[in-house]
Amino acid sequence: MTEKLIIPIHETFQKTIQGEGHWAGTPVDFIRLAGCPVGCHYCDTGYADGGTNLPRKIKTFDELINELFSPRVVISGGEPFIHKQLPNLVNRIEATGRQVSIETSGCYWQEISPQTWITL
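Above: the chain's sequence. Below: its structure in token form.
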């Protein structure tokens, strides 16, 4: 039996190119999570605060991981670190040989794999 995924996913998109930061110009898949209690006034992510309008109906970790194509995966939000299953998700993605990067506000933290690239 595969483990149920409880993290609210707003969208995923694959086979794109990272447009900023250290990995700019490299192939990447994105996982955008919903939910963020921070309330930054400059936030351009309209779905971040509520997490109620989630177009993705992914039910298990395996289902999400099977959608990945690129050697790097960016997890953004919302605020990824508010989700208790984030370390489990990161570990499962890294177990496939992919590099994971998490974009965060830095306001929340959980212990995460030391191989994970964290950006603020």
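The mean pLDDT is 87.
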